[in-house]
Design goal:
19 helices; 3 domains; globular; alpha/beta; Tyrosyl-Transfer RNA Synthetase; Rossmann fold
Length: 411
C-alpha cells in the first residue's frame, strides 16, 4: 500500500494539494519530504508524536526524511495557536535541545544513512540571510492582505501581533524553498493548524524555482473539551523517558478519553486497520481492553517491548489491588530535612506535586479519592509520619482510581 493510501486508510489526511499529481510524483521514488519541529525544550512531547509517526510512515513507504529543527525560526516564534509572544531562547539552549530531540526521533526514524533520513537546523541558512536581499527575493510573493486572513495570525491579531512574528510565515516558506534547492525536497507535511504556512512555502517553491511542490496536513487530535492531546495534570507528556517514565507514558495512553481511542489506535500504533476497527468498536468495559492495547503499542514504539511489558505488568498489579508496582510507578523524592518528623497530608500532596494546590488536595480527601499504603485517607487534618514509609519501598500514594505515586525521602 502506498503512502497516501496508508494515510487515507488511517484517517490521517486533513488537507492535501494536487493529490493526483502527487500520486504520480511519488511513483518516481525515492522522494524527499520534511516536517519541522521547534526546539523549545530538550524533549518533544506527545503533541509532536503524530508528525513523527507521519515521517515514520513516509520512510516505511520508501521515502527519504528530512527532520527540520527550527533553530532559526524558534528565535522568531510561531504565532500559531499562541496567545502571547514566545520566550526567546539562547543559541546554546537551542543547540542543547536539538541533541535531545535527535535522540527521541531515532526511536522512530532510521538515520543510519543520509539516503534514508537527515536532521537539519534551519539556523544554518536563515542565520546567514542578508535582510535586504531576502526582502527583495521573497517579499514580493507575499500579500499582506492574504496573510492577515491566515488562521495562524487571527488569534494573535486580537491581542497584538508583533512584526517579529509576522515574519514567521516568510521564514518557514523560505525553509521549503531552501530544502527544495539543496535536498530535492518536494513535500512538506505538518499539523492542520500549519496549513497556511505550508501552503505559502509550496507556492514560493513553484513561483521561484518553477518546481513541483506539495502540501499535506494531518488532523488535530483533541480531547472532548477541544484541547490538544498531550497534557496531563502534571504538564506535558514528554518523549524523553527521564522526564516522563515509560510507566507514566503507558498510563497516559491507558487513561485517554474513550472518544479518542479509535483515532489514537489508527494514528499512534502500527496495528492493522482490521484490528484497529475491531478494538475501536468495543463498548462498555471492552473499551478498557482497547486502551490497554493502545498503551502497550504506543509505549513499545517509543521505549521498546521490554519497557512496555514492564509498564503493563506494573499497571496490572496496581489495578488488581496490589500495594505497589515494583518501583515502576512515578517516583517522587522529598528531602528528609523538609519532611522532618511528619507532615500534614494536604501539605504533603502539594509538596510531592500529586496535586497543584492545597484546595485541590482538600477536595481529593473530602471526596474519598486518596489512599496511602492501601488505606483510605478521610481526615484533611491527618498527618503522614516516618513510620508510613516502608523501608526501601517508600510510601505509596493512590490518587483517584488509577493514579499512583511512590514517595521516598532523600537525605
Amino acid at each position: 500500500m502506498g503512502f497516501i493510501e496508508t494515510l487515507r486508510e488511517r484517517g490521517l489526511i486533513a488537507q492535501i494539494t494536487h493529490e493526483d499529481e502527487l500520486r504520480e510524483h511519488l511513483k518516481e521514488a525515492p522522494r524527499t519530504a520534511y516536517i519541522g519541529f521547534d526546539p523549545t525544550a530538550a524533549s518533544l512531547h506527545v503533541g509532536s508524536l503524530l508528525q513523527i509517526m507521519t515521517l515514520r510512515r513516509w520512510q516505511q513507504a520508501g521515502g527519504r526524511v528530512v527532520a527540520l529543527v527550527g533553530g532559526g525560526t524558534v528565535m522568531v516564534g510561531d504565532p500559531t495557536g499562541k496567545s502571547e509572544l514566545r520566550q526567546m531562547l539562547t543559541p546554546e539552549t537551542i543547540a542543547g535541545n536539538m541533541v535531545g530531540i535527535k535522540k527521541q526521533l531515532e526511536h522512530f526514524i532510521d538515520f543510519s544513512s543520509p539516503s534514508r533520513a537527515i536532521m537539519v537546523n534551519n539556523y544554518d541558512w536563515l542565520g546567514k540571510l542578508n535582510y535586504l536581499e531576502f526582502l527583495r527575493e521573497i517579499g514580493p510573493h507575499f500579500s499582506v492582505n492574504r496573510m492577515l486572513t491566515a488562521e495562524c495570525f487571527k488569534q494573535r491579531l486580537e491581542k497584538g501581533l508583533s512584526f517579529l512574528e509576522f515574519n514567521y510565515m516568510l521564514l518557514q516558506s523560505y525553509d521549503f524553498l531552501h530544502l527544495y534547492r539543496h535536498e530535492q525536497c518536494t513535500l512538506q507535511m505538518g499539523g492542520d493548524d500549519q496549513w497556511s504556512n505550508i501552503l505559502a512555502g509550496m507556492e514560493l517553491v513553484r513561483r521561484l524555482a518553477g518546481g513541483k511542490a506539495f502540501c499535506l496536513t494531518t488532523p488535530l487530535l483533541t480531547t472532548s473539551d477541544g484541547k490538544k492531546m498531550g497534557k496531563t495534570e502534571k504538564g506535558a507528556v514528554w518523549l524523553d523517558g527521564s522526564l516522563t517514565s515509560p510507566y507514566e507514558y503507558f498510563q497516559y495512553w491507558r487513561n485517554v478519553e474513550d472518544s479518542v481511542v479509535g483515532n489514537s489506535l489508527a494514528y499512534f500504533t502500527e496495528l492493522p486497520m482490521t484490528e484497529v476497527n475491531r478494538l475501536a468498536a468495543l463498548t462498555g468495559a471492552g473499551i478498557n481492553e482497547a486502551k490497554k492495547v493502545l498503551a502497550f503499542e504506543a509505549t513499545r514504539l517509543l521505549h521498546g517491548k521490554e519497557a512496555a511489558e514492564q509498564a503493563a505488568a506494573a499497571a496490572q498489579k496496581l489495578f488488581s489491588g496490589g500495594d505497589g508496582a515494583g518501583g515502576n510507578e512515578p517516583e517522587v523524592l522529598l528531602a528528609a530535612s523538609e519532611f522532618g518528623d511528619g507532615m500534614g497530608v494536604l501539605d504533603l500532596l502539594v509538596k510531592a506535586k500529586v496535586v497543584p494546590s492545597k484546595a485541590e488536595a482538600r477536595r481529593l480527601v473530602e471526596q474519598g479519592g486518596l489512599a496511602i499504603n492501601g488505606e483510605k485517607v478521610d481526615d484533611i487534618h491527618g498527618k503522614i509520619v516516618r513510620s508510613d514509609f516502608k523501608d526501601e519501598s517508600g510510601c505509596l500514594i493512590k490518587k483517584g482510581k488509577k493514579h499512583y505515586f511512590r514517595l521516598r525521602l532523600s537525605n
